[in-house]
């Protein structure tokens, strides 16, 4: 056996030994017996039945409602004896003990059906009726106690599971305790402890002994009139939950926990599993069974040691069934179907599992190569042929599904594997966006002759809506409407659950019982049962009508669930949505992206002749998918197979169009213009490797200038593209937009591009900065095409419900009105969705199915289906053939920091990046708005704003100045031509007036390009305005004079104080220490909003007051230095490193502030008793429930999105001797100390968002601590001490260089930390590597050590000759920087943070 990690070797040894023991046991075992040492005995007397487990006896009572007793959970032998193993018998004996002691039980264990099935076995052998509640975050008190329904315009209370169980002596099963909110389950505390509960009807449940005592002195009628109800002495509660220490969930409330007796249910053993699989009477060899079990149990045992998710041991039965149907399947094939470790494990964990499989001699390449798949249907049974393998399965009535399926070998193999899994259970297909999951599923459904019931999943989807939705009928009565999932379960169809990764982690487990046991309790009281269990009830004396009256319906054997999900990409910092609970629910199949030859064949079959340029795109796609660079690999989904098909169809439709330059197409496909510069640089280099080069600018300019827009003989022509115009009605004409639009060449070219995509049936996505003309472009396009528009503007409070329908109350009924989206679908209008990046991503994602395949389930139960689908059923809405969606969104990333609509949904749209216009186009446009404005002025404005936009793109400015602001200036000049330019630019730049560093940058650029703004730049606007003799002057002035400087009183409540001269820390006042006022001795910040007085008023202070303020300032300044033990000399030294970079500190702080404000945004919490009315709970409001509101609060700490982990930064500084030695040569040490000060000052106050520490490296060590996590410097003195220690170490340390060692250890250390989402290491070095024989390759490998979780960078701040530049060219693009000018450091850090952390 090849060498293994000691842990894997130990586990293998353990299980090989287990197999030997098992062989010995099986030889001594008596044939036909299952358990030993303990058995279940049941007396045959009909009236006095008793059950005995070991030494525990219990009398059986005759049930009143036999349909509420579980069936077919216990297996009986031919002699009628119950067949259970010893482990189960011991658990059942314990449960019998607790039941006899009248104690409630809590079963703990690993995810899976084992605990629930054990409860069902107990109930079946005890013939006990039960009530079942699947708990989730959406479970409310009314779901447990009593729920109000409207009948005959009156509200009536209906008892729910807990009350029914208490009154009728049933067992209440609470499944998924860890998913319930903390404030829900305590409602059961008194019922658990004293068997008492107050009901909403005013009645009161009391314990049976108290009720019986009262009955001795009062009549039953009196007790009833008092509202007293007797709890049955047979009532019990059995809770099922997971240990929250290991599995994420809400911890048990201590009072609730103390009322239960707990039992840990251990996973199955090797022997139990082997015997269980042998009972299937399978033809699979015993060696294969043992190998399968050994691997499964090794993975299960290693779950704690290697932090692996639990292996779903109960699914091994399905795996063996697959092997029995297809003898060519290997153990490895089955294992990866049950445990998709490539999608759920980190790379290091995957290697360990691969190594274990290799050493178990598992055949990785054993999958059969299926050459042909066909099927035939007869008598509602479909026979699927995989070459010589025949698989039969039930189906519904014949269907006529069609699929655009290209029979590629890889797709065929995945389809064959899916069919084999589908034959034995529910399946989940995992694959990245755009790889063809839905196409594959459609072909599968065609082969098995099944009808799909699609259901789009999203985060806000409640567990109730997943099953049923409460609505009102024509009479205003509340009724329950089945979800597509339940419709499929009732009719034997296939439920397609798209977007499984979007569903909240507490919502999914509600489906466990349906998937594992094929049973489910619906909100309306109906119970759906597996077909054989339903047949057992029929054989037990019921007929179908009786069961229907009791709300018991069968689930046909043909019912299946197919889930579609996207595997989580490593390095995103998000928790893996494939939790152990989810892993246990499905059989999985992974769909990889196509290889280049496969993709080429697919495009040839779909598009006939392939455009020559497509080969370059195919090459680029493979380079991205196969790249080991995390930045490039993360871009691979953008160029998915779906996207390549879109591009190929465009090139086919317009083969000779000069707009179809591949480089230009990729600019829009990737939104390259809006990428962080690091990502953009890496991608453009890869494009060149694929042979994709930029077209010459002269050609592009000529293309722009010769495009015209004409409408002749009802035919629209934009450039070279034509469209026939149809007639529209007056009603439609009223919805056609009309806008002021000038045919700027760049916009005309964009209009032609948009028209081309529109004509080939594409939906459009326009992304750009604010003010670049996105809305005008679309309005102009629709105006030219004479297309009516429906308009939606999204915002942070947009919900899936409001996106699809508008619900209102009318005459006591909830009436659903079509939203703009539904109207556009019905009427064939164009739906324009604006501000798409403002809505939550889970809301935006609901558009994926509508745009991708023309399907969408609305909140009112109706479903939109594609054009051409027979929509005769009343709940179906056929999409009009002219329907289109156009989405407008701001660019992703900083500074907008909206939700990234492009990343989430962009692959189903034709994307277009709307940039600011070229100088020529912008001047053309401005001349139309200001025909009398001199061309020289226009040119200066265009050039100045062009440079400001470039600075914003480079991260030097936070605000991206747009064309909208220039147009506003030109409009003003056109109307008021004599306006002073200094006065005019303030209309745009006064927003920056209170950011002096930013304002200085802006005014320098304006002045550089010749704009006369001296007065504005020198802040002399008041002087300028005084020179103008106006009849009326309005001037803001406090009107109060100063007296003498003083500190002022400290407000113990720290309330804001504006004006006045009493309180210290006020704003806009006088005399006292504060901010924004005048005459005070010094600045004093109490973290309130600042109200700034004008500079003129602040300067208008008597000289003696100024002198007194200065004297007091100096005195208090010296006191402050004493407090932090910093001398005036030390302060002057520190200022040399600090003051020169205050502008850069402010830039970094602005970026961090924007990042922090986005992370602090609160979330909507449902089921509140006050706040905004929740549209989805209007019916609950009608019935009288109180918790029908929602409000924004801090996230629940136990939910998916809560406890967002901070980001992590480790700064590694160079304190080697060469830094001190060559400081006189190029100032490298001083530059580094300035950089360290800049970072410490900028990050002050943001340590919870980006946790940082600083270590040093030199010849004496590679991890010298300077700033530790949690012990950040609090003032100038502490920061000065840190840089002084760095300086001293560099002066006195031993020679040597440990740059590579320091980089490697820093990346490794952060890679092992688990408390952070994303991490970056920034190494500062002086590029003195050659002297110590260190290669750039070694440094690059060290920085890549913990990819993709940790991103490593190096910044060279010193260099002899050109060594730094040489090293930079030898290292991977974007990993190294040369920064000899410290003013560029914030820009570099900004690139790193936006690329790695945002």
Task: Explain this structure.
The protein is an alpha/beta fold. Helix content is 41%, strand content 17%. It contains 58 helices and 52 strands. A six-stranded mixed beta sheet has the order 49-48-47-50-51-52, sandwiched between helices. Strands 7-10-14-6-15 form a five-stranded parallel beta sheet. Strands 20-23-27-19-28 form a five-stranded parallel beta sheet. Helix 53 (1228-1243) packs antiparallel against helix 54 (1276-1292). The relative contact order is 0.05. Residues 1-5, 18-36 and 1032-1037 have low confidence and may be disordered.
**Biggest sheet, spatial arrangement of strands:** 49-48-47-50-51-52
By DSSP (H or I, 4+ residues per run), the number of helices equals 58
Distance between the ends: 46 Å
Proportion in helices: 40-55%
**Which shape, going by the Cα principal axes?**
globular
What is the number of beta strands?
52
The mean pLDDT is: 83
The secondary structure category is alpha/beta
Radius of gyration: 36 Å
Largest sheet: 6 strands, mixed
Return residue spans where pLDDT drops below 50 for at least 5 consecutive residues: 1-5, 18-36, 1032-1037
Oligomer: single chain
SS strand fraction: 15-25%
């Amino acid at each position: 056996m090849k060498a293994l990690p000691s842990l894997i070797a130990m586990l293998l040894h353990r299980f090989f030994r287990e197999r030997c023991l098992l062989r010995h046991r099986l030889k001594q075992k008596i044939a036909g017996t299952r358990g030993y040492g303990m058995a279940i005995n049941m007396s045959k007397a009909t009236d006095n039945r008793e059950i005995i487990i070991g030494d525990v006896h219990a009398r059986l009572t005759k049930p009143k409602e036999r349909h509420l007793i579980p069936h077919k959970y216990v297996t009986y032998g031919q002699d009628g004896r119950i067949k259970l193993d010893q482990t189960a018998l011991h658990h059942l004996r314990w449960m019998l003990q607790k039941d006899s002691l009248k104690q409630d039980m809590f079963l703990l264990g690993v995810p899976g059906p084992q605990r629930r099935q054990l409860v069902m076995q107990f109930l079946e052998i005890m013939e006990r009726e039960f009530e079942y509640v699947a708990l989730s975050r959406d479970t409310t008190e009314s779901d447990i106690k009593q729920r109000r329904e409207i009948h005959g315009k009156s509200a009536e209370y209906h008892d729910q599971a807990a009350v029914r169980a208490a009154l009728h002596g049933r067992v209440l099963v609470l499944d998924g305790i860890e998913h319930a909110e903390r404030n829900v389950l305590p409602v059961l505390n008194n019922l658990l402890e004293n068997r008492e509960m107050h009901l909403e009807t005013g009645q009161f449940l009391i314990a049976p002994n108290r009720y019986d005592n009262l009955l001795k002195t009062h009549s039953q009628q009196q007790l009833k009139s008092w509202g007293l109800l007797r709890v049955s002495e047979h009532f019990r509660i059995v809770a099922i939950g997971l240990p929250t220490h290991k599995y994420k969930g809400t911890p048990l409330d201590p009072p609730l926990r103390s009322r239960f007796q707990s039992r840990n249910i251990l996973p199955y053993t090797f022997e139990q599993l082997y015997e269980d699989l042998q009972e299937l009477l399978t033809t699979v060899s015993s060696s294969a069974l043992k190998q399968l079990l050994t691997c499964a149990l090794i993975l299960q045992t290693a779950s704690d040691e290697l932090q692996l998710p639990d292996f779903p041991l109960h699914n091994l039965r399905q795996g063996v069934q697959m092997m029995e149907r297809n003898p060519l399947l290997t153990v490895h094939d089955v294992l990866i179907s049950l445990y998709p470790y490539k999608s759920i494990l980190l790379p290091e964990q995957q290697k360990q599992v691969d190594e274990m499989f290799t050493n178990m001699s598992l055949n990785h390449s054993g999958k059969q190569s299926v050459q042909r798949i066909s099927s035939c249907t007869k008598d509602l049974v479909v026979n699927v042929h995989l070459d010589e393998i025949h698989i039969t399965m039930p189906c519904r009535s014949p269907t006529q599904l069609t699929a655009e399926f290209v029979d590629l070998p890889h797709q065929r193999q995945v389809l064959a594997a899916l069919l084999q899994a589908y034959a034995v259970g529910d399946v989940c297909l995992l694959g990245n966006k755009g790889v063809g999951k839905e196409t594959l599923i459609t072909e599968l459904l065609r082969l098995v002759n099944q009808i799909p019931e699609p259901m789009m999943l999203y985060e806000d989807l409640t567990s109730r809506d997943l099953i049923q939705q409460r609505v009102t009928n024509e009479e205003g009565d509340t009724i329950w409407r089945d979800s597509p999932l339940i419709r499929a379960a009732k009719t034997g169809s296939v439920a397609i659950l798209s977007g499984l990764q979007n569903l909240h982690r507490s919502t999914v487990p509600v489906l466990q019982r349906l998937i594992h046991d094929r049973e489910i309790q619906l909100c309306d009281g109906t119970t759906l049962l597996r077909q054989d269990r339903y047949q057992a009830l029929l054989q037990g004396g019921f007929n179908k009508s009786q069961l229907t009256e009791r709300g018991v319906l069968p689930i046909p054997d043909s019912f299946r669930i197919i889930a579609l999900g996207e595997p989580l990409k490593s390095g995103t910092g998000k928790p893996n949505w494939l939790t152990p609970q989810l892993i246990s629910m499905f059989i999985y199949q992974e769909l990889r992206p196509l290889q280049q030859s496969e993709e080429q064949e697919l495009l040839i079959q779909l598009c006939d002749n392939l455009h020559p340029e497509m080969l370059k795109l195919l090459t680029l796609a493979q380079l991205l998918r196969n790249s080991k660079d995390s930045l490039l690999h993360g871009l691979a989904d953008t160029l998915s197979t779906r996207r390549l098909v879109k591009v190929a169809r465009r090139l086919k439709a317009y083969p000779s169009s000069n707009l179809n330059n591949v480089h230009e197409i990729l600019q829009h496909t990737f939104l390259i213009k809006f990428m962080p510069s690091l990502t953009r640089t890496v991608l453009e280099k890869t494009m060149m490797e694929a042979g994709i080069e930029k077209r010459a600018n002269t050609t592009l300019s000529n293309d722009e200038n010769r495009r015209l827009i004409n409408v002749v003989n009802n035919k629209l022509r934009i450039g070279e593209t034509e469209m026939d115009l149809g007639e529209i009605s007056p009603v439609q004409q009223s919805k056609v937009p009309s806008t002021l639009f000038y045919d700027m060449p760049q916009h005309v070219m964009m209009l032609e591009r948009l028209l081309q995509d529109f004509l080939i049936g594409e939906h459009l996505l326009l992304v750009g900065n604010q003010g670049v003309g996105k809305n005008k472009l679309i309005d102009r396009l629709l105006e030219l095409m004479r297309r009516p528009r429906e308009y939606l503007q999204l915002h942070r409070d947009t919900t899936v419900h409001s996106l699809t329908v508008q619900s209102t109350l009318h005459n006591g009924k909830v009436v659903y009105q079509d939203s703009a989206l539904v109207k556009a679908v019905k009427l064939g209008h164009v739906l324009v969705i604006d501000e798409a990046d403002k809505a939550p991503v889970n809301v935006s994602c609901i558009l994926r199915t509508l745009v991708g395949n023309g399907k969408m389930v609305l909140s009112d139960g109706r479903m939109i289906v594609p054009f051409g689908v027979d929509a005769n059923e009343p709940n179906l809405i056929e999409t009009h053939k002219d329907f289109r969606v156009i989405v407008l969104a701001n660019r992703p990333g900083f500074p907008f920091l909206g939700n990234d609509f492009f990343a989430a949904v962009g692959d189903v749209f034709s994307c277009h990046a709307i940039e600011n216009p070229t100088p020529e186009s912008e001047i053309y446009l401005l001349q139309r708005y200001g025909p009398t404005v001199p061309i020289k002025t226009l040119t200066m404005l265009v050039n100045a704003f062009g440079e400001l936009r470039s600075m914003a793109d480079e991260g030097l400015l936070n605000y991206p100045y747009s064309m909208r602001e220039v147009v506003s200036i030109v409009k003003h000049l056109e109307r008021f031509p004599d306006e002073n330019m200094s006065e005019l630019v303030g209309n745009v730049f006064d927003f920056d007036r209170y950011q002096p560093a930013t304002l200085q940058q802006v005014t320098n650029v304006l002045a550089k390009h010749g704009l006369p703004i001296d007065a504005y730049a020198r802040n002399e606007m008041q002087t300028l305005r005084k020179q103008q003799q106006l009849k009326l002057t309005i001037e803001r002035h406090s009107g109060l004079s100063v007296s003498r400087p003083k500190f002022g009183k400290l407000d113990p409540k720290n309330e804001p104080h504006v004006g006045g001269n009493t309180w210290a820390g006020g704003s806009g006042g006088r005399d006292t220490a504060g901010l924004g006022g005048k005459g005070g001795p010094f600045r004093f910040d109490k973290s309130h909003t600042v109200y700034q007085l004008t500079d003129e008023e602040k300067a208008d202070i008597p000289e003696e007051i100024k002198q007194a303020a200065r004297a007091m300032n100096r005195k208090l300044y010296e006191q402050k230095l004493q407090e932090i033990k910093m001398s005036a000399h030390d302060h002057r030294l520190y200022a040399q490193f600090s003051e020169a970079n205050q502008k850069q500190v402010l830039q970094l702080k602005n970026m961090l502030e924007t990042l922090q404000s986005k992370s602090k945004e609160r979330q909507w919490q449902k089921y509140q008793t006050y706040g905004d009315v929740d549209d989805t709970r209007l019916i609950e409001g009608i019935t009288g429930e109180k918790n029908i509101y929602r409000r924004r609060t801090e996230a629940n700490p136990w939910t998916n999105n809560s406890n967002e982990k901070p980001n992590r930064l480790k700064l590694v500084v160079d304190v080697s001797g060469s830094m001190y030695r060559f400081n006189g040569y190029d100032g490298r040490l001083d530059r580094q100390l300035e950089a360290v000060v800049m970072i410490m000052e900028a990050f002050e106050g943001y340590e919870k968002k980006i946790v940082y520490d600083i270590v040093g490296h030199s010849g004496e060590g590679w991890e010298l601590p300077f700033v530790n996590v949690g012990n950040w410097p609090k003032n100038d003195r502490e920061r000065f001490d840190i840089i002084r220690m760095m300086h001293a170490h560099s002066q006195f340390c031993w020679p040597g260089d440990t740059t590579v060692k320091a980089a490697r250890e820093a990346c490794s250390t952060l890679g092992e930390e688990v408390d952070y989402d994303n991490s970056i290491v920034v190494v500062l070095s002086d590029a003195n590597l050659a002297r110590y024989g260190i290669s750039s390759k070694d440094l690059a490998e060290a920085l890549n050590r913990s990819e993709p979780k940790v991103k490593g960078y190096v910044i060279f701040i010193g260099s002899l000759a050109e060594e730094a530049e040489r090293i930079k060219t030898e290292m991977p693009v974007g990993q190294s920087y040369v920064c000899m000018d410290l003013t560029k450091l914030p820009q570099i850090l900004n690139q790193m943070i936006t690329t790695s952390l945002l």
